[in-house]
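Support request, priority: normal
Reporter: lab tech (M.K.)
Component: structure prediction queue

Hi team, I submitted a job for WYL domain-containing protein from Zhihengliuella salsuginis yesterday, and the status page still shows it as pending. I've pasted the exact input below so you can check whether something in the sequence is tripping the parser. The sequence length should be 688 residues. Please let me know if I need to resubmit or if it's stuck on your end.
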Amino acid sequence: MRSATAEHTGILRSNVCTVAAQTKVDQTERFVSLLVTLLQAPRRGLTKAQLRHAIDGYRDLDDKNFESKFERDKAHLRELGIEITADAGAANDSFYESGALYRVDPGQTQIPEIAFTSQETMALTLAARLWADPGFGGAAGRALARLTSADALAVDASPFAARLTVGESVLTPLTHAALRGEPVAFAYRKVTGEESVRRVAPWGLGSRFGLWYLIAFDLERRQERMFRLSRIVSAIDATDAVGTPPRPAGFSARDYLARLSPREATTTARVRLAAGRGQDLRAAAVRIGSSPREGFDEVEFDYHDAEATSERLASLGADVEVTGPAELRDAVVRRLTGALAAQTGAVPEYSLKKTVGAGRSSGVAMAARALSIVAFVQHRGTAGRAEIREHFGISEHTLTTDLQRISLLGPDDISLGTRIDLDFEADPVQISTPPELEAPLVLSLTEAFVMVIGLRMLSQVPGTSTEAAVSALAKLEEATEHLPVLDAIALQSRADDDPELSGAIKRAVAEHRALAIDYYSPTRDEVTARTVEPVRFLESGPTAYVQAYCRERRGMRLFRLDRIVGHAQSEETFTPGERHAAEARDLSRNLYAPQDDDGAVVLAFASRLDGLLRDYSPSRVAAGRGAEKDLRMGEVRVAGSTHVHRLVAAHGGDVFVTEPQELARETGAWLRRALKAYSIDTESGNAT
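Reply from support: The job had stalled in the queue. We restarted it manually and it finished. Here are the results:
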């Protein structure tokens, strides 16, 4: 049935088609039109020649380009969770050649109807909103649009929140490789500091003790291995492999990670700390003694990972000297020398702009979003443009582009089906689809992954919609049982590493009890006593936080759990009020909240640290190319030069100062002083 705006839509479509005919056909439109056409095809399927004739974007291609694009489009649909099958033995007819018949099975492309309760819908919404990573967050929004017809829910006041981020830059490509069973190659640094290229078949990933691990089959060594992501020192590249073994039946990343013993994973560090400095390390020390170096103390503490610990030690600069073990000392020296080389190297030309570009989505992501918009509107019968924009986090321009693309989906040959019908300028939006598209399409592997992981995280947290998350998870896992590789990812709550502290905080949040804490401030390198009124427990990637009103600072603050070095729960209760609501939403989304007196500086970030740059909420950005890597420049506000020095040192060459030049020179001098303790010659301005 045509909508009331069908005539107007036809005119608009005609105009759009005229433009499309004069320009290159959108690849997203092409491969989704392939899907829409096949969904309407006769049960026997369509020949390649029929598809070539029916779909705009195929007809004008020569044979070679058509074959290439057809295979690529099938691969794109496979990423969306839709498999095209080919059956031999098509009959001859008067117009189309004989050949294989291509089709999709509607039973394998549509989500079975799932009845979620209102509480389960709330849990699904919470699970989708856990993801702060742009790619996974978009997938979560698309999945939610196809799973539930509920309107946007107000869940910001939940006492538990999370920003599930990939954290490690290599985690995103490794996750995709593990889910799809694709072999990869990367450079890996051993405990000894030696680097080598490893070719592996990823089986799964998971977090333990705040660290991410890859479980994989090493293709050269022909045995299973476990790799710490913090020791992967290159990009993740696809690699060819013959005879790659499949993931073992019944594989569980959680079972593999359970083999890691906290005691076996711990090593004792030996450092010399300047008197009164490194208060967090002193609080965790197993021994503090006198040192032959005047003005310093000998301090020993336990750590899990040399690379992760070297970030903290490098950020202390000249206030620390690592004396052992060698792997930790070498890791700190590598960070300092890398930071100095970047800080004193050539600065690329750049021009800062006020807008922060989010980058163009991939064709598969745009297709998934377009199909999810169709499901979103169909669930409601009609939907306002503002409602659609808010749900999918897109601009008005992007929405209009998506709706234009949707209006062109389907075959040009009306004998093979109809197109999706809508007025892409209307508000509210109403969409009429062929009957074959009335049921939402299956979740892609990535979409199922983010929702299942989000629900698993919620189900571990008492005080939230735990029961609803568990029941929604059971229904979703049953609907995605054809995707058993979801067990390849084991995401453990970071708070589980210190259940005593996290338990005390969660009780304080639930019971509205004041909490006395001793909190380490890295900017001032001091531990201060605070009395806080906790209102929310927050996780962001590998870090857990408590959001609380601080009586000493008289404002809402975000406290990292790993910087709370002492705590005591009191019997005093408080009544949540206006002071607890202030800035709550902003604090949960922007973890670095600049103060009014913070100064503006321009920092260069390696492109893999885009997430860190976003957390600093840059006012202006630019792109550039360094000697060995792509860079993102951002104008950010920071709390003094000490914060900048430590940030640069911690990231070992992936962050450096470009403006002001005085701060850049000062940071270089700070790094040289830090390296003197290790007998590193920096007189020439370059670390050796």
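The CA atoms of residues 28 and 362 lie 9 Å apart. Residues 326-343 form the longest helix (18 residues). Let us know if anything else looks off. Ticket resolved.
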